[in-house]
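User: Could you go from structure to sequence for me? I need the amino acid at each position, not a summary. Structure tokens:
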């Protein structure tokens, strides 16, 4: 029988010849077909995955060395390119587009013998918090099928939550890995900006976007990060900071932890979430860590700044989808302007159009200084404030989301309410620091939620170490 608790465990199982990669892949394919109603996958690469598994089995049995991700079954969000496979950003504007190259992250996974099992549903162009903005329809939360899994990487979260793959990739521009991980009760890591190459990731807001990882345990996430991180000739924004052995935890020590008073006492936060996080703060204190409240006066400015800057970047990034270069083109245009207009009106969904218009507006000459320049100032102030905190503390703890998973359709008619729910996740992207969502709690309504921990730039190793400590000390209650 195939069983999986971690990649390490899976590898021992293979080495002891208790089973094969083919059996593992078959197990996931069976689970995927049994859970089609969740709508997590867009396409499943059945024959390719089985063939690759067979090849890996033969090579392993012939005594060839195993890659770090030998036979590890991975799903990827539909915004990450995989050569010769369809990619659509869950949009009607890219109906039959086939990637002509693989993202650097994917290349590196494959180089270590990972098996990509399929691509995963998401909000169109990674814009959203519920996965309801997808041209393929919503993804359902496996814990309660009447509820959203979060977004935009909803398919990637549910694929891990429902045991449809071992780890998955998402992208996090303002919380799209941490928020769905939180609402699905799994782990989600957004690395430092520039830790993993964005080459081959369809751009939403380039100065915010980062590929992130979903998993069920810290060592798997560390291993996937270790494989993907590091400089890349195809992306000049990737850092040359040395890649550490993220899968090997650093020695535990006493930490200095800050929490933001205004975040925990925010009126939008579900009181049960606030009290769970306060409980964790108390426990950390009792365990000998230094934990202090720090003032933070920018809390109500960060969501507006995020939406101004990301929509501005998106309006520019998405101008390439014009009916000429890629994908969908409207029928029988009268002239070039009509071709552009109708292609984009018919091809993009409502939320994407809303953001392109908002972004174009905030960049327009009359309003540029009033919105875009001011939002950039907020970003800079925020960066400075957060850096000041990290002068004295190792981590900042806060919630991931103000509430547990809401019902399908509940917030669709109120985009502002939806945007405000990003209050706890956008800071890490505005500042470029790593952050993780750790599943520690269960609400009295039966739904999971987690704790978010942020660390300073390139401190992924200590972030993963403290996450492991937290998981060891406080299993889901
Ligand atoms: N919910 C946020 C948004 O809609 C985050 C998206 C993301 O991280 N891709 O912009």
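Assistant: Here is the amino acid at each position, in order:
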């Amino acid at each position: 029988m195939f069983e999986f608790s971690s990649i390490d465990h899976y590898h021992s199982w293979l080495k002891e010849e208790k089973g094969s990669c083919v059996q593992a892949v078959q197990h996931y394919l069976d689970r995927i077909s049994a859970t089609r109603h969740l709508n997590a996958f867009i396409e499943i690469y059945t024959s390719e995955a089985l063939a690759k598994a067979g090849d890996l089995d033969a090579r392993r049995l012939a005594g060839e060395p195993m890659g770090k991700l030998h036979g590890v079954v991975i799903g990827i969000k539909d915004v990450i390119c995989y050569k010769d496979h369809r990619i659509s950003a869950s949009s009607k504007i890219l109906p039959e587009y086939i990637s002509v190259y693989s993202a650097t992250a994917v290349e590196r996974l494959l180089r270590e013998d990972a098996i990509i099992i399929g691509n995963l549903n998401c909000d169109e162009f990674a814009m959203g918090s519920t996965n309801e903005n997808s041209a393929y329809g919503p993804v359902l939360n496996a814990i309660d099928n009447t509820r959203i899994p979060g977004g935009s990487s909803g398919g990637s979260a549910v694929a891990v939550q429902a045991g449809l793959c071992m780890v998955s990739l998402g992208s996090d521009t303002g919380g799209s890995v941490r928020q769905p991980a939180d609402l699905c009760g799994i782990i989600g890591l957004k690395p430092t900006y520039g830790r993993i190459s964005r080459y081959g990731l369809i751009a939403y807001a380039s100065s915010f976007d980062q590929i992130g990882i979903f998993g069920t345990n810290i060592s798997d996430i560390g291993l996937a990060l270790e494989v993907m991180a590091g400089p890349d000739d195809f992306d000049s924004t990737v850092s040359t900071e040395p890649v550490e052995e993220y899968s090997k935890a650093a020695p535990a020590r006493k930490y200095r932890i800050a929490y933001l008073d205004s975040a925990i006492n925010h009126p939008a936060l579900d009181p049960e979430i606030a009290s769970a996080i306060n409980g964790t703060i108390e426990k950390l204190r009792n365990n000998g860590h230094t934990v202090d409240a720090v003032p933070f006066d920018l809390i109500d400015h960060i969501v507006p700044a995020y939406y101004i800057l990301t929509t501005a970047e998106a309006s520019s990034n998405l101008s390439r989808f014009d009916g000429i270069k890629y994908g969908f083109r409207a029928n029988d245009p009268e002239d070039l302007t009509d071709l552009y207009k109708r292609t984009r009106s018919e091809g993009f969904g409502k939320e994407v159009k809303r953001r392109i218009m908002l972004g174009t507006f905030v960049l327009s000459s009359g309003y540029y200084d009033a919105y875009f320049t001011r939002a950039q100032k907020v970003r800079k102030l925020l960066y400075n404030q957060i850096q000041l905190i990290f002068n004295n503390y190792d981590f900042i703890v806060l919630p991931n989301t103000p509430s547990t998973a809401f019902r399908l359709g509940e917030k669709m008619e109120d985009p502002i309410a939806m945007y405000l729910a990003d209050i706890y996740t956008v800071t890490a992207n505005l500042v470029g620091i790593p952050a993780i969502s750790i599943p520690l709690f269960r609400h009295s309504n039966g739904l999971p939620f987690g704790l978010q921990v942020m660390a300073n730039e390139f401190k992924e190793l200590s972030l993963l170490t403290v996450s492991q400590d937290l998981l060891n000390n406080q299993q889901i209650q």
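One structural detail worth keeping in mind: The CA atoms of residues 141 and 305 lie 30 Å apart.
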